Amino acid sequence: MYKALIIDDEEPSREAIRILGDWEGLGVREVREAGDGRAGLAMLQEWKPDLVLVDMKMPEMNGMEFLQNVERDYPNLFTIVISGYNDFEFTRQAIRSRVVDYLLKPVNRADLNQALRKAIGVLEARKESENEDINRNITLNLSVPKLKENIIFQIIERNLKVRSNESFLRLIGADDPDKRFGTSAVLLLNPEATAAARFKRERDLLSFAVTNVIHDFAEEGFQSFSFPHPKREREIVVFHTLTGGHTGDLGFRSAHFMKKVVAALRDLFGLTVVVGIGAPAPDISKLADSFESAEAAAGEIDLLKLGGGGTVVQAAPRADSPPPKETPSFAGRIGQLRGAIDGGHANQARTVVADYVKKLRSLDALSLREAGRLLGEFVFLLGDLALEYGVQENKLADAGESSLRAIGLSSDYADIDQYEALLLDILTYYAGQIRAVSSAERPFDVHEIKEYIDQHYFEDIKISMFTEKYYLSREYLMKLFKQQYGFGIHEYVQKIRMEKAKELLGHSDLKIQEISEMLGYKDKNYFSKAFRNYYSLSPSEYRTGRTDG
User: Fold this and answer.
1) Which residues form the HTH araC/xylS-type domain (predicted)?
2) What is the pLDDT of residue 139?
3) Residue 399 has what pLDDT?
């Protein structure tokens, strides 16, 4: 039999928990109360309860301070937190303290008793188990969700022999012959933007919120337990159990359930996710097969058809399918890109990438799995190019999400437009690193700008062309040029154009419209106005006066 302590400064809240809890059915023989964290700590020392339910907002000592004390002094104690999504600091402490569950106020009967069952389940397992290895694992994994997570993950990784670990199975409900099992793979497509906008960039809090939403949608006879995939930063593992019914019912219930989750995550947090529903597992030993099919289904979702709203797909039956069509590789364009970077032509380099994405857009389909592979190839090729120029390896990414974050880049993309924007951001970063190294190795000569203007005066010349090429500031470039030649860059462009205009006006067979276009002016009137401002007479007057003379 067990003892439970309720800590809350509001008597009606304590009374509600007393009334709603199925204490007798769960084997809790005694329930006591405390009005704040300080009184609760004193009761812990004196009474030694097995389980504590603690409110986070209290006078004297709030729930966060209480949990910090428990984490230090009572590491084996099970705690259930009562609070809300908006209590950012409280939520972070709850995660750190690895609480059994996090209940939102006002607490309802179903959520309360589900959390209590979690705690009592592992208490009984720890009490009844005589296996030292199991006891050691339970001690190391004090939080029931964490223990369940480890068991499920070991099964889907094929690292746990199900038949020889029956004591573990009861903790995930797998000892019940009337239950059916399945999985879903949830891929988060814009976690970085969502974490920045809604969770102060705390990715752990985002994952915590996602799993809470999944757990909150529990249905009668159908339960779903979820946790972040330990090896994949953007993936959530969902474990479904159905009590009774046929195996085929599980797929239908899972798809219906996950569609509600996708909509809720979008509406609550602006989070875009896609979900693959795995094939039902005939028994728990086949759970790994179910999850493999779930990941495969999620990976085959077509990026070209995603519009930012997320989607849910079920694993297709295994069949002999034709090999996928070969997607275009960026490797064949790396020479063009090198030429654009060497010449300092940023727009040309972006055009190379944009043309590549145009090819991708023309495909019949582009799966998320293939898009991820191509992204990795793109980063690898740019990294290889950067190393050729002498960029230090610690300034490069290895295509993993965390390494992109380390160099200040997001790896979010929820549709093909965002995918293109990501490739362009990566290009901009790498081109900048290459320019920085190249500029350091080759001394800058302002005469190169003058020569470029002399040869390309008829083009639309922008100062940004030179700042990008030479990796120098606009102000510094303009200052150097004026010191050397007595003109600003724009003034010099105008000077060359006007001198060339006078030369061309000497050819009577050329019309003024033609001269205007030869000088880079698209409008004859604009050219005439510029000429008049510079020489105080129009091109026609200049030509007439030259003829008369």
Assistant:
1) 447-545
2) 44
3) 66
Q: Are residues 539 and 451 in the same domain?
A: yes
pLDDT over 50 at 61, yes or no = yes
Residue 162, domain member (yes or no) = no
11-20 pLDDT, tens digit per residue, is 989 999 999 9
Read off the amino acid at residue 434.
Answer: I
Please check whether residues 64 and 102 belong to one and the same domain: yes
How do residues 357-387 score in pLDDT, each as one tens digit?
A: 999 999 999 999 999 999 999 999 999 999 9
What are 57-64's contacts with CB under 8 Å, separation 24+?
Answer: 57/9, 57/83, 57/87, 57/90, 58/7, 58/8, 58/9, 59/9, 60/36, 61/36, 61/37, 62/37, 62/90, 63/7, 63/37, 63/90, 63/93, 64/89, 64/90, 64/93
Reported as a single tens digit per residue, the pLDDT across 186-241 is 999 999 999 998 888 888 889 888 998 898 887 888 989 999 999 998 999 999 99
Decide: helix, strand or coil at residue 104: strand
430 plus 455 within the same structural domain: no
Residue keyed to tokens 């040869």: 455
Q: What is the pTM of this model?
A: 0.62
CB-based contact 408:452 (threshold 8 Å): no
Are the CB atoms for 359 and 332 separated by under 8 Å?
no
Residue 136 lies in a domain: no
Amino acid at residue number 90: F
Instruction: Map residue 35 onto helix, strand or coil.
Output: coil
Residue type, 533: N
For residues 306 and 189, give the distance between their C-alpha atoms in angstroms, rounded to a whole number. Answer: 11
Quick one: how many helices (H) and strands (E) in the chain?
25, 10
Q: What is the CATH number of the domain that holds 502?
A: 1.10.10.60
pLDDT at 269 over 50: yes
Residues 363 and 232 in one domain: no
Calculate what percentage of the chain has a pLDDT beyond 90: 47
Residue 227 pairs in a beta bridge with 237
State the pLDDT at residue 476: 81
Asked if 294 contacts 278 with a C-beta cutoff of 8 angstroms, the reply is: yes
Banded model confidence at residue 308, pLDDT cuts 50, 70, 90: low
Alpha carbon separation from 20 to 25, 30, 343, 401 (Å, rounded)? 12, 15, 73, 44
Dig out the tokens for 149 from the structure.
């997570």
Contact at 8 Å (CB) between 84 and 105? yes
pLDDT score for 142: 41
Q: Domain of residue 56: give its range.
A: 1-128
Q: Are 19 and 11 in contact (CB under 8 A)?
A: no
- Structure-token pair, residue 292: 């493999």
What is the rounded distance in angstroms from the CA atom of residue 535 to the CA atom of residue 502?
Answer: 10
At 108, which amino acid appears?
A: N
Residue 407 burial (10 A CB sphere; 0-12, 13-18, 19+): middle
Cα separation, 273 vs 186, in Å, equals 7
Residue 467: helix, strand or coil by DSSP? helix
The pLDDT score that the predictor gives to residue 374 is: 94
- Residue 62 sits in a domain whose CATH number is 3.40.50.2300
